[in-house]
Amino acid sequence: MALSADAILGAEDTQTKPVDVPAWGGVVLVRGLTGIERDAYEASIQQIRPKPDGSKEVVLVRDNARAKLLVKCLVDEQGNRLFKDTDAPALGKKNGAILDRLYDVAAELSGMGDANEREIEGNSEAGQTGDSSSSSPETSDAPSASSSDGSAPES
Questions:
Q1: Among candidates 36, 26, 46, which has minimal Cα distance to 72?
Q2: Which of 37, 50, 116, 122 is least surrounded by CB atoms within 10 angstroms?
Q3: How many CA atoms, within 13 angstroms, populate the side-chain half-sphere of residue 106?
């Protein structure tokens, strides 16, 4: 039987995961983002920049991106955020390895990650001017340049 709109809207589907952070002296609760929160976060780390040919591109701005996500995802036992968005610079000064581990949990719970970043980067052309070439980071089956002995070229 298919779900009704009320059933979907009434479902508690946002996940929370406890993560032990011994360096901070305890457990941190990480909550996944809602759809609206995720879209706002992704928009906050993107910038539209002009290209030399007059077209525009969307570029990921990674400045303090981990802390910017974590201020939205670290919650107390009632699900209330621990931080305001303006706390991101202070949180960003904490241990990078810890922030990275918590970021990975937050990204997973929010349906984000490497595939999501590739999707954002793949949609990086804003207002293309007829050039449909791709700057995709994916690898090609085409042979790469190599030296005559078959080894990879030196950089």
A1: 36
A2: 50
A3: 24
Q: Which single residue is written with the structure tokens 């052309």?
A: 125
Which pair of structure tokens corresponds to residue 141? 């089956």
Number of domains into which the chain is organized: 1
Q: What CA–CA distances, in Å, run from 91 to 4, 38, 45, 80? A: 41, 19, 17, 17
Residue 121 pLDDT exceeds 80? no
Token pair 């293309």: residue: 128
CA torsion sign, 90 to 95 to 98 to 103?
positive
DSSP H or E run through 60:
strand 56-60
Question: Do residues 123 and 56 touch, judged by C-beta distance below 8 A?
Answer: no
Distance CA 90, CA 117 (A): 25
Residue 111 domain-assigned (yes or no) = yes
Residues 57-97: pLDDT tens digits?
Answer: 988 888 899 999 999 999 999 999 999 999 999 999 999 99
- Residue 94 domain-assigned? yes
Domain, as residue range, for 35: 15-126
Residue 5: inside a domain: no
Residue 22: DSSP 8-state: G
How many Å apart are CA 32 and CA 29, to the nearest integer?
10
Q: Is residue 135 part of a domain?
A: no
